[in-house]
Amino acid sequence: MKILRQRESLGAQQDYESAMTLLADVRRTGPVLRLYEPAPTVAFGRRDELLPGFAAAARAARESGFEPLVRKVGGRAAAYHGGCLIIDHVEAAEDPTSGIQDRYRLFGDMLVAALEELEVEADVGEIPGEYCAGEHSVHGTHPASSPEPGRKVKLAGTAQRVVGGAWYFSTVLVVEQSEPIRSVLTDVYSALELEWDPATAGAVDDLRPGTTVAEVERGLRKVYGMYSEYLGYGPLTD
């Protein structure tokens, strides 16, 4: 499996289009894992675009310095920025629809394992009131030593797209600086007239202060290396 470490964001739209290009080419290139830190983006779902408040929500995103994007995969609006790690796994498959649920379980477990490398307590599952709610979200729990022990926060959302002969699995993991994400989503969800609980939006460094994207990436690469034989990828190459 080839690891493509994108060193800087190309911008919200171009980053998304690059993923679609990888998906279109993957039957020729072989499996690809793309990692990068994104430009500030609010990624809307197709259902959001149909709501009366969509134009106001997109305007609120821009006013907060986040570029609005309507994606073809995923649910409701989600926000991310340079303190996040995007993990795009793209692979060819004869029957890409057959493993959809298995992929959600596998990649959720792998992300939890990567966070456990940093001694961050994490698990897969929706927490009440989270943004872009989904049963395969990854959440973390504030440690006993924190001011709010046991409180759960959403750390990552996942989504898939399946096309003829290939699939694309994308994860957005919030590592640093959760406050700008809470702030912009508060304005966006208000414009869309959707309910959510801002206290559910968190970052890894809320649970383990000082954690960086680079540290999380090292943990993720280690876990992918451990799973590579099981997944049949052989050595991981940059």
UniProtKB/TrEMBL annotation:
A Pfam family per the record: LplA-B_cat
Cited InterPro entries: aa-tRNA-synth_II/BPL/LPL, BPL_LPL_catalytic
Protein name from the UniProt record: BPL/LPL catalytic domain-containing protein
Native source organism of the sequence: Kocuria dechangensis
Stretches assigned to the BPL/LPL catalytic domain: 27-228
Domain of life assignment: Bacteria
UniProt cross-references to PROSITE patterns, sorted A to Z: BPL_LPL_CATALYTIC
